[in-house]
């Protein structure tokens, strides 16, 4: 945190922030009787707790709960933050007062990346968000549409299996493999099976596009001083706004021609070129929705791009990271890996390939995935919430506009909630009927809860299960000689493994044709 721009900005911030802080303190103390803020660590004048933040925020926030209790506060610059670390506090926010806490706290980079919060994830709670989310969940991710683009997912996953088969006996970087697979699956679901071909038509390089998607995630994860001191935002001390502007320009140059071509195809009514239902991609669904008047929202080019950002940036990194964590946990516990593979043998068979129709019967793999997301929630603090009015939580006042973190990481590893919480035990999910992803059980929140629960959940679950089942059914995996699995975490918005996981595949199926 203590980088050069910080030094520069401290001086400038001093004067401006003193005024803000004085007003805030006056407001709080002059209402002492009504306000009872949670306890919390003291910070420094002006900057608050900012200089003490460590890169792995969820670890630090979990440690602080041991000192200050399940609800505590701290200041980051002029911003009051409150952290909730227990299931009962979570319930008060995402069940009892969900509509009050349904607003987001978007960062400057996040807002820019989503064309000013025109997406689903960062748009403020209200009718626009409701219509966009409805369109996404009911129209794009309806069972019918997910079914309709199954052949696209299948095609890309089979390509990955063929690719891994060429690497048999050699170490494979699992995150890279998961990245290529997910990116191919996602881009083909969005743009159709010949995404690369379509891009080439418009002289766009596929690698450049993938690098751009990665860079979006990196820039969005950078701590931005302008987020803590909004008055300083126009100075853009760290150059994050500038970086984001350049990336958006590049993204526009890639997406605009692809979308415009589809719009033109539709308006020309060149039926022959428009894919039929059995292979409908998201672009086609979106441009068709643009023409419809009864969907509650008037879609345009920019809104379509904002939705695509949610899918490409929000959807891929979380999924890839989860695939890597599952493989790491399985390589670390060979007896659990053996059980997963036995199940695949029983359900799919060794003379067959995995189809999505097998997934509902893979109960043990499902439990492995759930247990992985318990120990390694990719967004451990979910998306911070912003109450639209002052609220009482745990007997304390949370003023309007506070940045509220719901610490799913702490809850999912809490010894008062989970037996042997640090052990990887998928069995705990096998016999429980109420530990689903739907966010109804406050002990388990990897996709969040309430009205702003992950909108991509049906697709995420399908893609994760399909990719994992295919990799584990087709190959045996082992670590390179002398290597152990390192389960430590890296830093970022999405919590990845610190060390890349390398694993060596060996064919598991006797029939060579199943790899073709
Ligand atoms: C392992 C995979 C994934 C995980 C763990 C995950 C997790 C999450 C979490 C924790 C949230 C915030 C919920 C909250 O604040 O209560 C969220 C929001 C969201 N996710 Fe996911 N996600 C995943 C995959 C996806 C995919 C594949 C998509 C899109 C295709 C997606 C789209 C979204 C959207 C649009 C939101 C914002 C919802 C709203 O604000 O209404 N996610 N996700």
UniProtKB/TrEMBL annotation:
This is Uncharacterized protein. PROSITE patterns: CYTOCHROME_P450 (PS00086). Keywords: Heme, Iron, Membrane, Metal-binding, Monooxygenase, Oxidoreductase, Transmembrane, Transmembrane helix. Belongs to the cytochrome P450 family. Heme binds at residue 454. InterPro entries: Cyt_P450, Cyt_P450_CS, Cyt_P450_E_grp-I, Cyt_P450_sf. The chain crosses the membrane at residues 6-26. Pfam families: p450. Its cofactor is heme. One of its GO terms (molecular function) is oxidoreductase activity, acting on paired donors, with incorporation or reduction of molecular oxygen.
């Amino acid at each position: 945190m203590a980088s050069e721009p910080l030094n520069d900005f401290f001086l400038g911030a001093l004067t401006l922030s003193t005024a803000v802080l004085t007003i805030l303190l006056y407001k709080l103390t002059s209402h002492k009787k009504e306000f009872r803020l949670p306890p919390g660590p003291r910070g420094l004048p002006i900057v608050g707790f900012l200089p003490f933040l460590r890169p792995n925020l969820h670890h630090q926030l979990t440690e602080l709960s041991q000192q200050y209790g399940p609800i505590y506060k701290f200041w980051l610059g002029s911003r009051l933050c409150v952290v909730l670390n227990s299931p009962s506090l979570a319930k008060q926010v995402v069940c009892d007062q969900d509509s009050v806490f349904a607003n987001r706290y978007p960062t400057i980079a996040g807002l820019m990346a989503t064309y000013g919060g025109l997406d689903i994830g960062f748009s403020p709670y209200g009718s626009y968000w409701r219509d966009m989310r409805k369109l996404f969940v009911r129209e794009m991710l309806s069972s019918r549409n997910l079914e309709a683009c199954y052949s696209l997912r299948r095609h890309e996953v089979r390509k990955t299996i063929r690719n891994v088969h060429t690497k048999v006996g050699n170490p494979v970087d699992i995150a890279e493999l998961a990245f290529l697979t997910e990116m191919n699956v996602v881009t083909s679901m969005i743009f159709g099976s010949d995404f690369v071909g379509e891009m080439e038509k418009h002289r766009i390089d596929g690698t450049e596009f993938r690098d751009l998607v990665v860079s979006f995630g990196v820039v969005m994860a950078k701590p931005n001083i302008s987020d803590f001191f909004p008055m300083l935002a126009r100075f853009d001390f760290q150059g994050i706004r500038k970086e984001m502007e350049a990336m958006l320009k590049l993204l526009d140059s890639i997406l605009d021609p692809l979308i415009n071509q589809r719009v033109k195809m539709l308006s020309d009514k060149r039926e022959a070129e428009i894919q039929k239902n059995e292979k409908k991609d998201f672009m086609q669904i979106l441009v068709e929705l643009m023409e419809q008047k009864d969907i509650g929202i008037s879609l345009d080019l920019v809104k379509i791009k904002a939705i695509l950002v949610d899918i490409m940036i929000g959807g891929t990194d979380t999924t890839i990271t989860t695939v890597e964590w599952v493989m790491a946990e399985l390589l670390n516990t060979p007896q659990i890996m053996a059980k997963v593979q036995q199940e695949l043998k029983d359900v799919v068979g060794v003379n067959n390939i995995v189809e999505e129709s097998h997934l509902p019967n893979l109960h043990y793999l499902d439990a492995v995935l759930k247990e992985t997301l318990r120990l390694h929630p990719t967004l451990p603090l979910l998306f911070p919430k912003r109450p639209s009015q002052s609220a009482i939580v745990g007997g304390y006042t949370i003023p309007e506009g506070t940045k509220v973190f719901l610490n799913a990481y702490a809850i999912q590893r809490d010894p008062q909630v989970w037996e042997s919480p640090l052990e990887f035990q998928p069995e705990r999910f096998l016999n429980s009927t109420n530990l689903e992803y739907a966010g109804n059980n406050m002990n388990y929140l990897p996709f969040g809860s309430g009205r702003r629960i992950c909108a991509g959940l049906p697709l995420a679950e399908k893609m994760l299960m399909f990719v994992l089942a295919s990799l584990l059914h087709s190959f045996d995996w082992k670590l390179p000689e002398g290597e152990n699995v390192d389960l430590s975490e890296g830093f970022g918005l999405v919590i990845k493994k610190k060390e890349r996981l390398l694993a060596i595949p060996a064919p598991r199926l006797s029939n060579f044709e199943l790899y073709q």
